Amino acid sequence: MSEEPKAIGKIAILLVVGLGPALAAILVWPSRGIAIAAAGSAAMAIGFVIWTQRLVAEQNHLRLRDTALRNDVSALEEKVQIQSRELRDIRTSDEVTGALNRGAFLRHLDEMVQRDGRLGKPLVFLLIDIEGFRAINTEKGRLGGDAILKQLGSALCGATRGTDAVGRLGGDEFGVVLGECEDPRPAVNRLFVALQAANSREGATPIHVAVGAVTVEDTSHGVDQADLFRLAEGALASVRGHAGSLCARRTLRSDKADRATA
């Protein structure tokens, strides 16, 4: 039962208890009944005021309690959402660079192929290696190598859009998926500019990368990841070991008889 009907019931009881005897006194003893009724009414009025104040205070207390409970529930829900996001990030993120881990990246690759297939859009896949990373790791140690990986991960995120996917595939190998894209050059150029700026800082360890870029012209029938990686690895191998950062481009065509071109 809600508080309002309860309050109305209490008021009705108070009126009956307070006015009943006064009305009876008027009927039975008219000469003094009015005085008795007046005194009873005054006492009832005082009691009614006191009771009303208590009722108002009670209602305010209940409202404050309900507000506090709602705030507690909202805070708890927000905390659960934050913890859920943190747990999801832990499961999908590379612990060194913060980019997607291998499993999460490959899932994103499949999802983006399906999405661009529905839209009838091409897609670009980049496979990236750090030149001479083993020597850097030997010279700078594990923490120094991790710093280089973080720097490249940050540069890749800065060179791509929020709708693209950046992941660390293992070691010093990174993958990038550029959705709704057929020309990788703008993103690759932004990456090279970012690395060049980082390399020009005093005391910086120069970072150069080899990039194998594959444009998937037709995503409507899906993509065989083995074919995609094979083509990207071939492009990457053709520019690995050269001075500076270089990119080789390939195209994955829908025609099974002509899967790749330079």
Helix and strand topology:
Elements: H1 3-28, H2 30-92, H3 102-119, E1 123-130, H4 133-159, E2 165-170, E3 173-178, H5 185-199, E4 209-216, H6 225-239, E5 246-252, E6 260-261
Parallel strand pairs: 4-5
Antiparallel strand pairs: 1-3, 1-4, 2-3, 5-6
Helix pairs in contact: 1-2, 4-5
- The order of strands across the largest sheet is 2-3-1-4-5-6
At the fourth level of CATH, the homologous superfamily of the largest domain is: Reverse transcriptase/Diguanylate cyclase domain
**CATH class category name of the largest domain:** Alpha Beta
Query: If you compute it from the alpha carbons, what radius of gyration comes out, rounded to the nearest whole angstrom?
Result: 38 Å
The biggest sheet amounts to: 6 strands, mixed
| CATH fold annotation of the largest domain | Alpha-Beta Plaits
Strand residue content: 5-15%
H and E string: HHHEHEEHEHEE
Mean pLDDT across all residues, rounded? 82
The tally of helices reads 6
Features:
single chain; 262 residues; alpha+beta; Alpha-Beta Plaits; six-stranded mixed β-sheet; 6 helices; 6 strands; 63% helix; elongated; disordered C terminus
